[in-house]
UniProtKB/TrEMBL annotation:
GO terms for molecular function: hydrolase activity. Keywords: Hydrolase, Lipoprotein, Signal. The keyword Disulfide bond does not apply. This is Substrate import-associated zinc metallohydrolase lipoprotein. The keyword Electron transport does not apply. Residues 1-23 form the signal peptide. It holds the Pfam family Peptidase_Mx1.
């Protein structure tokens, strides 16, 4: 019993001593948790000039856990691929709207503020892959950058179609499109079963949807019509309508008329003019200088940018 009391008293003394020592120490105002500092390289400085200063867009190519989905095994994008993608997105997407509107303000005001690159695919548990995602109009993530072949891109390359698709979402969320559009195919939208119900693009087109994904919802239908129209030649578009047959064609054309008028009346954008610019810039894209970070060598000589 006596031994237990001695241990108890000894512990109490130590505790009081510790409290006294702590109370005499002054807390430092400097945090012990300090953010890592990455020294800027030539590409960072190029991005600052061409994305941050010009468009108020942050282009992120270094791998960051906070920006990545923890649901996938992902790898960083390669440095050279990131440079190529930055130049391609600017040339084939951002500068398209500069030409259409006459300034960079349209992109500054409405385009997502973060573009994030990932080197690998994002594989789902069912074996399918994710090529790109968009988050609340604020960020677009592009996957599989390590398989990008800059010299082989064209208007139908998925990254650029995806960019126009996601940007169209932002525009029609800012200014809603007419409810007449939804009524045309209303009962036929199938939500997440779009790829199960429609096994081929031809099937979807014959049922009045320009793509299988367009059958998911009226919002996806609307922006798919925009993104596919501007990334296809007139001949390719006509071929899709022929595939749709008389019934499917009539439905697609009725919806596209609303889409065309909406873009013209709400945003002063002529989709025919936009398609012309997109296709021309896509043809120019393989000739971009993907090695130099000198602003003077970036644009092809025949580019129609109004910067």
């Amino acid at each position: 019993m006596k031994k237990n009391l001695i241990y108890l008293l000894f512990s109490a003394v130590l505790f009081c001593t510790a409290l006294t020592a702590c109370s005499e120490d002054e807390l430092s105002a400097t945090s012990v948790v300090r953010p890592s500092i990455t020294e800027q390289n030539d590409f960072d400085r190029w991005l600052d000039r061409n994305y941050v200063q010009t468009y108020n867009i942050k282009f992120k190519y270094r791998f960051e856990d906070i920006e990545s989905s923890m649901g996938y095994y992902l790898t960083p994008a390669k440095y050279e691929q990131s440079i190529a993608m930055a130049k391609l997105i600017r040339h084939m997407c951002l500068e398209v709207y500069d030409e259409l509107t006459g300034s960079t303000e349209f992109i500054r005001n409405y385009f997502p503020k973060i573009l994030y690159l990932v080197g690998s695919y994002a594989y789902k548990t069912n074996g399918s892959v994710v090529l790109g995602t968009a988050e609340a109009g604020a960020k677009i993530t592009f996957y599989n950058l390590d398989n990008l072949v800059p010299k082989e891109v064209n208007a139908k390359t998925s990254y650029f179609k995806t960019t126009h698709h996601e940007f169209a979402h932002i525009l029609n969320q800012t200014k809603p499109y007419p409810t007449d559009f939804t009524e045309i195919s209303g009962p036929k939208y199938v939500q997440d079963q779009c790829f199960e119900i429609y096994k081929t693009e031809d099937q979807a087109q014959q049922d009045g949807f320009i793509s299988r994904y367009a059958s998911k919802s009226d919002g996806e239908d609307f922006v798919e019509l925009i993104s596919l129209y501007v990334n296809r030649t007139a001949e390719e578009w006509e071929s899709m309508l022929k595939t749709a047959g008389s019934t499917g064609r009539a439905t697609i054309e009725a919806k596209f008329e609303i889409v065309y008028n909406y873009m013209s009346n709400s945003w002063d954008i002529d989709l025919n003019k936009m398609r012309e610019i997109v296709l021309r810039r896509a043809a120019e894209a393989p000739d971009l200088d993907f090695d130099s970070l000198d602003d003077e060598t970036d644009a092809p000589e025949n580019s129609g940018t109004n910067e």
